[in-house]
Amino acid sequence: MSPEEARRLADVQGPSAQPPRPAPRHEHGGPRGLGEPEERGPGEQEERRRRLAEAQGRVVAALVAGAEVPEGFDPERMRAQALSLIAKRRAIVARIRPDAAQAAGPDLAAEFAAYAAARATPPSGYRADADDFATWLRERGRMPGEPAPRRRWWSRLPGRR
User: How far from each other are the two terminal CA atoms of the chain, in whole angstroms?
Assistant: First the structure.
């Protein structure tokens, strides 16, 4: 087959199976043609970042604080994800404070859900979350008083007190 015949046949059969070319990139490394202007001033970038931070804050508030689901998100999926995050927190709290999980007993899921719903935002760490949950149970009479402080592991080393 001659090269001319091959070209004619390729034109009839459609475009060649060449890999697609990468999108042109502008000086900052991102692809062009995504609805963004080529050049933006620092003020416009700051405004976009501020709006993005606000939108992200609304999504996080809907997931962890029971706030209204932002427009454009499926409320059922957001509810499922929020329940999943509570279950994850509950499992970690049960590992960190097994005494609290034992005190809650078979009602652990319901107790932890009520505890999580009573707070606007979760504490800033799993240990704080576990301790707050234990305090919450104690305030409701579900857990005995504060246990005696345990000796730290390093105090049990030979020659240490």
Answer: 92
Report the distance separating Cα 87 and Cα 97, nearest Å. Answer: 15
CA nearest to 126, candidates 93, 90, 86: 93
Query: Angle at which helices 108-117 and 75-96 pack, to 10 degrees?
Result: 110
Query: Are the beta carbons of 115 and 82 closer than 8 angstroms?
Result: no
85 residue type, one letter: L
User: Full-prediction pTM beyond 0.85?
Assistant: no
pLDDT band (50, 70, 90) for residue 12: low
When pLDDT is cut at 50, 70 and 90, the band that residue 88 belongs to is: very high
119 in Cβ contact with 110 (< 8 Å): no
Is residue 75 within 8 Å of residue 94, measured between CB atoms? Answer: no
